[in-house]
Structures are given as C-alpha cells and as structure tokens.
Design a protein that fits this description.
alpha/beta, Rossmann fold, Arc Repressor Mutant, subunit A, 2 domains, five-stranded parallel beta sheet, globular
C-alpha cells in the first residue's frame, strides 16, 4: 500500500443512520477513505471488496456469528476493528482472542474510535480498556509455559523493538533472539493461542501479564 494513499475503510452495521456519524467523523482523518456501510459481512464483501479496514458491529440482525464474521473478513485480507455496545461479554471475550486490531465500545468518545482506526490503518493493534477487560475476564487462557528469558524477550519484542535492540538490551546474539521468538511462537501454538505475527505476540504478552494492560500501572 502506498504511504500517500488513504486506507479504505468500510463499516458493517445494520443501522443505516450510523453511516452519517461515521462519515462525518472520518472526514477529519485524512489517512482514511470511508467507503460506506453494509448491513452484513456478506454484503460488504460484495459491495466493498476493496476495503482494507472494516469496523464490525458484533451483533447484527442476521444473527451471524461475530467470530465467523471476523474470520471471513480476515480471509479476504481485511483488517478488523470490533465495534460493540458490550451487552454480551461472552462475545467480546471471544472476539478479543481473534485477529482484530482493536475493540471499541459504542459509548466510547469519538476520539477513541478515531485513534483506534488510525492505528489499525497503520497495521497496528491498539489495546483499549475494553479489550483488556475482556482478556482479564477470560478464564480459558492456557499457560504457554515460557521460560524467564523467553518472557523477557517477548515483553521487549512485542512492544515493537527490533531484534537487534532486544539482543543488545539482553546481551545476547541476534540469532539467539530469533531462536527465542520461534520457540515462543511454537509454545503458544501448542496451547491453541497462535501468534504468527508481531501483533499476535503483543496480544499474548498483554494476556499473560508480561506487558501492562491499558489504564493500569
């Protein structure tokens, strides 16, 4: 994607009036182009197949599964932000464990939504308090069994530090850091918490307490 071209953003929501608010809000974000709204994921894939980032309402009138919707969008290469009223904590907890780049409550200030969209447009996850709360309440996060050194590598690497910087900070070779990252990914995959990308590693680090949750010391 060219750095000069805005990221194409679409909305999945079955309340047409929401489009008016989104269009007005996103007009203030020059890094994105708002394509429009669709009431279902299926219709979005037909109407806006070139969307790069999708803001997805978790509860739609067609009764579709939020997890299936996220999966369908990701299979088409679209990044996803979950947009929720938060009335179903179970759905929010499930979605928090998928490849979404953020979870935003509908009652949140517009600035929070826009910040999340800006981050997602840049391919970065933004850990909101809503997301953190969902993870904190999840009783089913299996322990990956990382060693102390693996935890240290994960905590640094997942924040965005380059491999060389992690190696220098820990006094180890770059190749050793790369070996640690491979082992970390393997251990998470074995317990059903795959972490193939750096964003996934960031989420695993938050989930397991190796990095602080937003809003906490």
């Amino acid at each position: 994607m060219s750095a000069s071209r805005p990221t194409r953003v679409a909305l999945v929501d079955d309340h047409a009036i929401v489009e008016v608010a989104f269009r007005a809000a996103l007009a203030e974000v020059p890094s994105v182009q708002f394509l429009g709204i669709s009431p279902t994921v299926h219709e979005l894939l037909v109407e806006h197949p070139d969307a790069e980032l999708v803001v997805l309402d978790l509860r739609l009138a067609d009764g579709s599964s939020p997890i299936s919707n996220v999966t369908a969008l990701r299979e088409h290469g679209m990044r996803v932000i979950a947009y929720t009223s938060g009335e179903d904590p179970y759905f929010v907890r499930l979605v928090a464990r998928t490849e979404v780049l953020g979870i935003v409550r509908k009652s949140a200030p517009v600035d929070v939504l826009l910040e999340t969209i800006r981050s997602a447009a840049a391919g970065q996850a933004l850990m909101s308090t809503e997301w953190a709360a969902a993870i904190d309440a999840d009783p089913e996060l299996a322990d990956a069994g990382l060693s102390a050194q693996e935890e240290a590598v994960l905590a640094m690497f997942a924040t965005g530090l380059k491999t060389q910087a992690v190696a220098s900070a820990l006094g180890i070779a770059v190749g050793t850091v790369e070996d640690y990252v491979r082992r970390i990914r393997s251990k998470y995959a074995r317990v059903g918490r795959a972490a193939p990308t750096k964003i996934d590693l960031y989420k695993r680090a938050i989930e397991d307490g190796f990095l602080p949750m937003p809003g906490r010391e």
